[in-house]
Amino acid sequence: MTTTLQKVDPSQSWDMLIAGDYDISVMYWTNDILDPDQKTTFVLGHDTNNNYMTRYKNDKVKELVAAARVEMDPKKREQMYIDLQKMAKADVNWIDLYYSPYISVSRKNIEHFGQNPLGRFTLEETVKK
């Protein structure tokens, strides 16, 4: 495989992303809420953002996204999201290239400082010595 890297001015990268004028792009994601619907709808649900700019379309997946969003039975809902993951990954809708964990840097006298997966600082146990 031959690859050509193209440096793009940040002022142009968003327009290129929206237009689909790229072969691969580095993006990030963080959940604001602890519910799988947020990312699932955004990435698989055929909404106005072109499924996080991937242009992925699968009508069965779209229907299951809508059904899972309103399912009240926790076990059924869990299985629906498991099925959604399997269906989307079978279609190879996107490939995660890396995971960047939250890294916190502090002075030596600060202990137990960190962030949860939502990016919230966990200060309840933080101590300054």
TrEMBL record:
Gene3D superfamilies: Dipeptide-binding Protein, Domain 3 (3.10.105.10), Periplasmic binding protein-like II (3.40.190.10). Coiled coil: none annotated. One of its GO terms (molecular function) is peptide transmembrane transporter activity. It comes from the Bacteria. This is Peptide ABC transporter periplasmic peptide-binding protein. GO terms for biological process: peptide transport. PANTHER family: PERIPLASMIC BINDING COMPONENT OF ABC TRANSPORTER. SUPFAM superfamilies: Periplasmic binding protein-like II (SSF53850). InterPro entries: SBP_5 (IPR039424).
